[in-house]
Amino acid sequence: MLNRVALVGRLTRDPEMRYTQTGKAVTRMGLAVQRPFANAQGERETDFIDVVVWDKKAENVAQYMRKGRLVAVDGRLQTRNYETPDGQKRKVYEIVADSVDFLDRAKDAPADGEEYENTPASTQAETKTGVGEPVPF
What we know:
The protein has 137 residues and is mainly β.
């Protein structure tokens, strides 16, 4: 069986980082991804997709990414169910990221040839993704 998702899009909001009760970092972010085709009116529609990032990758994304930045996400689709405090059942579809690559520079980025100190070019995959720990967001 295969469950892989690769997306390129822009962040719809600043990433939100929290820690689980066991101390694992988890960051949630929204990604706007344009569809590769136009609708009947000739406009390209956009899908808004929730992304979850775990551990060190989550800390890097929360520290270096902001709304509007272009990123590539590679991961898997996950569904989960929960019940709201007023008893309504909800189902959530989200991407659990194995890697998040930063594809553009911040507006205040250094000129070509210069580097940020301690800024990662990518938050490549780690072996554990924090699967199974529910995080209330």
